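Help! Submission page says 'invalid entity' but I think these are all valid:
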Amino acid sequence: MTLETPLLSISGVSKAYGDVVALDNVSLDIRQNEFFALLGPSGCGKTTLLRSIAGFEDPDAGTITILGSESTTPINLLSLPPNKRPVNLMFQSYALFPHMNVRKNIMYGLQREGLSKEEIAQRVDEVLITTGLTDKAAVRPAQLSGGQRQRVALARAIVKRPRLLLLDEPLSALDRKVRAEMQIELKRLQHEVGITFVVVTHDQEEAMSMADRIAVMHEGRVQQIADPVTLYAQPANVFVADFIGSGSLLHGVANQGSFSAYGSTFPCHNPDQIAGDAVLVLRPEEVRITAAAPTDNPLMVGSIIETHFYGGSSSTTVRVAGVDHPIVASHPGAPQYIVGDQVGLSWNPQSAVLLQVQP
Amino acid sequence: MSIPTPTSGRGAARRRALIGRTVFAAPGLIYITIFMTIPILLVLVYSFFQRGRFGGIVWEFTLENYVRAFEPVYLQVFSNSLVIAGTTTVLALLIGYPTAYAIAKLPTRWRTVALVLVVLPFWTNFLIRTYAWIILLNSEGPINSSLVDAGIISAPIGFLYTPGAVIVGLVYAYLPLVILPVYASIERLDRQLIEAAGNLGASRARAFFDVTLPLTLPGVMIGAIFVFVPSLGNFVIPELLGGGKTVMVGNLIRDQFLEARDWPFGAVLALFVITLLVVLFALQAAISRRINGTGKRVSSRA
Amino acid sequence: MHKIGWLRVPLVATYAFLYIPIAVLVVMSFNASKNPFNWAGFSTKWYSALFDNELIRQGFINTMIVAVGATILATILGTLLAIGVARYFRSAVVEAYSLAPAIIPDLVLAIGLLAFFALIGVTLSLFSVLLAHVVFGMAFVSAVVIARIGQTDSSLEEASRDLGASATTTFFRITLPSLAPGIIAGALLVFTLSLDEFVVAYFTDGPSTPTLPIVIYSMVRFGVTPEINALAALLLLVSFTIVISAQRITRLTDAV
């Protein structure tokens, strides 16, 4: 753990539109050279936060500071107009200027800095190579594919060598196949150019696969900030557990070190830390399917209502009498039971996290 | 589509389109052809023949009407008209663009009201709107009397019956026709493009001139054509506000048809106006294509 | 986006420019003095003078004949044309052609029609004005109805046919009702246009049946008459009422 000053520091930022609270006392730090994701469902405030950093929204309260390139004292971002902030934004729609070709789009930001013609030309050429757009330099955006447009948008932003690059739903406009390629591409570019990336996305897979750290947001608040593995394995609350990954949630009550639900007691990782209404999170890959016989010591018994085979793995959905939601289990290989079979379910207590339900 | 028919689907669809075109579109298209296209073609035909002694046409081919249009007295009218229509257009854009821009920035529920208020005068009687300016600009009218009362001028100024009065009248008549297409192009503009310019370091003014203005140019051109061409062809305003001293192409055309009874020469003058209209629209389409960087024309109908 | 700031200035200035002349006319129409430039107290005498003016009364009747006739014809032809163009042609060229009469300068259309009527031997009368007004009126109706068609769902008609309705039933029970707001708005616009139209009427009307705008023109040419102020106020009232109703029925600003 280093104690270095964070690159971007957001502290107590709030924003409301009339009665609608978009941001509610948001605080978070973004470190130098990290790939950070703001993740949440639409309307959670992530875009408002991004636009506040870029300067297109004025927060009602709070501060946002950024570390300058030379100085070690943070600069107050909110006092600067958008065009003076050392932050660049890649728009969701890409916002490429339709009346300028690729080269002119990329040059635009450098010209505003008043750099010499030679330096502009050199830096544009470099970034054209980095993004593989050299042969498209003279083409207008209307003649490019979705993936190419995204590269131009990215090139236009990184050519400015910002302290921080903000990306608003960078992959949402692309079709599935291109999206997977660009995911890898973005990660590669971030390493190559050494710029801190902040990605806004509603797609948890996208965030999990690209980001070093993720802030999960909901209803204008930060729910949890952690690396992807921690988010998945140790969600901070029920919202995060439900939003990240798939799985079954068992509603019950924790009392004196044990968790009981639907008339039974179930083992879990942390029963002694929770008291009162609680939820047990069961990830599909942690749920084992056994025979229903008592000799196998199943924790629950139910009947199979659905099986799916995905090629390398399968998932099995089991309805347990008295439990309101069916429970899903996934395992490698083909399904071993058929619909209607009575089976037992069990899991390793260490992998089942118990969460407090907020009153 | 749900019930399979014995005939092939494409054949049936083609037949349905043919019936639809005949029943619905044909009467209107024929009407337009008879009462617009043929009359205009007739004007074109007349321009190549000689005038009759007492009006009408003598069917003898001649290019004389075209040659006559180059006589200095008519060239003078052309250049005069172009200057007045041009000045009108520039003024209308200078007033109309900021207005359209401001309307586009209004909260949504006010925008409709603001636009209706812009078009409302346009849908009222054009003679009455012109007549209002006779009263306003009159030497005894409200403008002069308030200037005199305020001590700014000692004697009334003869605003009326000057080229300036004609220009004011034309701007007043056609201003709504500028504001609408310009508004449409500003409203269609993706505001993220302006934010992108800001994000890349452009000041607000810079972003306006680099992004907003070029991208709204097609709308500006439509507005300019909607003012420029009718201004050239207007004969009422030069007569009522210009006192007949300012002669525009429109006055000349009117006179050839109703007074001098020289229809072939009037036809040549009218063709000048039509050609200008067509050329300007073609120019607008080309520029619109260039700006958007696409092969196909981006909708520019106001 | 919603910060207007200094843009309020051009906005207010433009509305002042557009409405002060109209307001002055309306105020003057209640002026008791014969000299329109001296306020001599409130009076409605010019309105009564207006109703006694035989020329204006006859002009009004002539105008109404043309406007009502042109509105009916232009609405029928324009609606059919709009459906034909938007549903069966889907061609930008045909659409542009059907809207061309609204864009072509009125003077050019006027002299073309004058030459055309002379050639085929039609005597100039209110009927020739009506024929002329239909051609551009139809284009305005088409523009409004095409815009309306763009907003309606064409699968409604397919659903009607699928449920067993004939083409004719579908047209009267589904197509027309869904386009009604556009058709009514278009009709109202043609009516105001025809009511106020001067240039085309001036060239295509016979000398014995002047329409109201032609009467106004001949009066205005000879200077300022207080009756014109009263007439202006009334015509403004009529146009404003009709255009605002049309606007309330459909968004007319999309189709001008």
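Support: the input was valid. A stray whitespace character was the problem, and the output above is from the cleaned input. Residues 1-7, 296-302 of chain B have pLDDT under 50 and may be disordered.
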